[in-house]
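thought: user wants a sequence for this fold. calling inverse folding tool.
action: design(structure=
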């Protein structure tokens, strides 16, 4: 009986530790962008960490990075893909530098760089299906349209 109670307490502590270190908000990863004020042609460095995503069961098959307008999109601002990346099987981090494309960026638009994590999960028949989840980081992109 003592062994059973110790095993249950140990298991609960392990779950609590993972939950405290990896809150649900980190299920698709964590990332940061530098710098956050940009113009067309500028280089931006993206650092992503997927440790919690892996611990919580959202292991990225591949990741896509986009420039998006999340609110008040006036219809002229489709998403712009910055990069598609595929992590090595044992990797938990990704870091790269990419150039901001020479696109049309509008005044007073709120821009984000979005990370989209595509991960496999078992479907009802046991075969993998691919689902997506994501997160974003706000950036300021200088207008190219007057």
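)
observation: tool returned 146 residues.
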């Amino acid at each position: 009986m003592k062994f059973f109670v110790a095993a249950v307490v140990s298991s609960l502590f392990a779950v609590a530790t993972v939950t405290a270190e990896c809150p649900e908000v980190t299920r698709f990863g964590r990332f940061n962008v530098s710098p956050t004020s940009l113009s067309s042609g500028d280089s931006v460095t993206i650092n992503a960490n997927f440790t919690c995503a892996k611990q919580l069961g959202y292991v990225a098959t591949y990741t896509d990075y986009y420039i998006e307008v999340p609110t008040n999109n006036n219809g002229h601002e489709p998403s712009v893909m910055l990069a598609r990346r595929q992590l090595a099987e044992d990797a938990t981090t990704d870091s790269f530098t990419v150039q901001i494309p020479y696109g049309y960026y509008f005044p007073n638009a709120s821009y984000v760089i979005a990370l989209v994590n595509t991960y496999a999960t078992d479907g009802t028949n046991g075969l993998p299906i691919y689902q997506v989840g994501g997160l974003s980081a706000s950036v300021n992109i200088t207008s190219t349209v007057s």
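thought: summarizing for user.
answer: Here is the designed sequence. Residues 2-21 form the longest helix (20 residues).
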